[in-house]
Amino acid sequence: xxxxxQTQPGMFVQEKEAVTLDCTYDTSDxxxxxxxxxxxxxxxxxxLIYQGSYDQQNATEGRYSLNFQKARKSxxxxxxxxxxxxxxxxxxxxxxxxxxxxxxxxxxxxxVKP
Amino acid sequence: xxxxxxxxSHQVTQMGQEVxxxxxxxxxxxxxxxxxxxxxxxxxxxxxxxxxxxxxxxxIFDDQFSxxxxxxxxFTLKIxxxxxxxxxxxxxxxxxxxxxxxxxxxxxxxGTQLSVx
Lengths: 114, 117
Known about the structure:
The complex is a heterodimer of chains A (about 110) and B (about 120). Chain A contains no helices and twelve strands.
């Protein structure tokens, strides 16, 4: 079984500062992928970043980076230089190689303050 | 970029009525999914579909729900007798087959907001 935990229901960050959104996971699948999606108030699910369980380096995509600590089973999203448009719900998700359904955490609502 | 298309964007129905939510996944994708989200809360897995059959379903996906891929392009979710608690945003998603060890992301449609009165 897969389990994703996001313990921060809401986070605030000042514009231009960095913020870390936490995600821990549990799975019995030896090979898996970790994903972050952004959901703005308009409702669409926007893919941000992917980390494979066997990837040696932490993933980066522009201002997004993933702090992957496999032994701790954590995959935190770091957003650098926050912008007002970053205000949204952020979901951590996991998909296994064998059990390939994607499961989501409860989400973190990020608010960027001017 | 290719898109997953969902119709309608909003659906209002009376309790006890049947509804069919429609999705057109990306054409070369092989894995198809339905998720639901109540009032911007958690994104809940309903069902996955691969090789013309259900590969996994959650406890939410009871006998009132069914999925179908009737013609090789559409992927539908049917709720046979809607309840008030079925009111939610329903997302369709699809993904490619895995290439090597890379786990492919899901592409999501923009959702169908279902309101059961």
